[in-house]
Amino acid sequence: MGFNCGIVGLPNVGKSTLFNAITAAGAEASNYPFCTIDPNVGIVAVPDTRVDALVAMYVPPKIVASIIEFVDIAGLVKGASKGEGLGNQFLSHIRDVDAIAHVVRCFDDPNVIHVDGSVDPKRDIEVVEAELIFKDLDTVERKLGEAQKKAKAGEKRLKDEAGLLERVRDHLLGGRLVRYIAIQGEEEKLWLRDLHLLTNKPVMYVCNVHEKDLLTENEYVRQVRLAAEKEGARVVTVCAAVEAEVAELPPAERQGFLESLGLKESGLTKVVHEGYSLLNLITFFTAGPKEVHAWTIPVGTRAPGAAGVIHSDFEKGFIRAEIMKFEDLHRLGTEQAVKDAGLLHIEGKEYVMEDGDIVHFRFNV
Q1: How far apart are CA 79 and CA 65, in angstroms?
Q2: What value, to the nearest 5°, has the Cα angle with vertex 210 and ends 204 and 214?
Q3: Which of 48, 121, 353, 354 has its CA 20 to 30 A from that of 135?
Q4: Alpha helices in the chain (DSSP H)
Q5: Judging by beta carbons within 10 Å of its beta carbon (0-12, 13-18, 19+), is residue 154 exposed, middle or buried?
Q6: For 311-362, how does the pLDDT look when each residue is reduced to its tens digit (9 = 90+)?
Q7: What's the CA gap between 244 and 263, in Å, rounded?
Q8: Residue 152 has pLDDT above 80, yes or no
């Protein structure tokens, strides 16, 4: 399971610069709106020091990291939901992603044009979110009309669905994002999911700051945090220009460069970690002398479901899972030492997988 994140924001906030840096996909970055006409897609490995430790231990010929897919979506402007600035095309691209990284400009630079003439994070956030709300309103009102016609037949389920759509419409008309609406029961949750609404996707705000503001928050970042607190959203601070510099360095030199700036990790690492938390994802591993493989699953996945991520036969014929904790293996150094310490766990179908589990599945088909 991969993580698919759409990078959105107004034009010239640093979206494509950040995308280029973290994916090295070569998307055009220019000081003009709409330089990104088609969504650029880049796939990168998820940074995970546990993978490095397992590789050092087993020295396998094959290494498979978890992946994250970034989709760089062209800048939105006022009226995008009505087709301004090719907006409808871009809004449709957002519909396909799992989560949204909303890049907000939090730096002053007279050489970089702002589409609205000045830097104002609160206003910029409201512009983008208003366009997402308008687009969702179009979707909901169309579906509501269809549901109301069907509900006249008298079937309770159809009336209930129309009732949900009315609540969602009123919620959007109040300027609220759908992910904050109260849902009653699993059936409503499924109906809402099937609408694929833009404002129902989890969001993190990515504050793009000047290098000098990376270690101390400026007033612009504080404005974003205030907006995020009202929504219970996450905030990540990065400098797209610094990320671009890091991407150009040989891998062996990157950490030293970051440390010279007083940073412990790159902006990519922060974005990925927040994204995993946003989507309630965890990583488990299969490891041995042939391969070290990181696998991504949702929090709460039981052992057979995790086995099925590797291969459907593993889930169908699941017998048991033999599990070591990464911390135990890393501390003790070998699988045999883990076994001798009584820390190899044999788990059945009801076991809920935990982040960092190293597992060998037994199955029979």
Answers
A1: 40
A2: 65
A3: 121
A4: 15-23, 49-58, 87-94, 121-151, 156-173, 185-195, 219-231, 240-248, 251-260, 267-278, 303-310, 312-316, 326-332, 335-340
A5: exposed
A6: 999 999 999 999 999 999 999 999 999 999 999 999 999 999 999 999 999 9
A7: 15
A8: no
CB 257 within 8 Å of CB 246: yes
**Residue 13 DSSP symbol:** S
Q: Contact at 8 Å (CB) between 311 and 364?
A: no
Predicted TM-score (pTM) of this structure: 0.83
Q: What is the pLDDT of residue 350?
A: 97
- Other CB atoms within a 10 A radius of the CB of residue 61 amount to 8
DSSP sequence for 67-119: EEEEEE-PPP-TTGGGTGGGHHHHHHHHTT-SEEEEEEE----TTS--TTSS-
262 alpha carbon, distance to own chain's centre: 26
Give me the mean pLDDT over the 120-139 stretch. 90
Q: What is the pLDDT of residue 79?
A: 57
Within its chain, how far is the Cα of 54 from the centroid? Answer: 25
Cβ neighbours, 10 Å, residue 309: 16
* pLDDT, greater one: 362 or 26: 362
Nearest-angstrom CA–CA distance, 259 and 340: 39
Task: Give the model confidence (pLDDT) of 297-315 as tens digits.
Answer: 999 999 999 999 999 999 9
What local confidence, expressed as pLDDT, does residue 283 receive? 94
d(CA 280, CA 96): 18
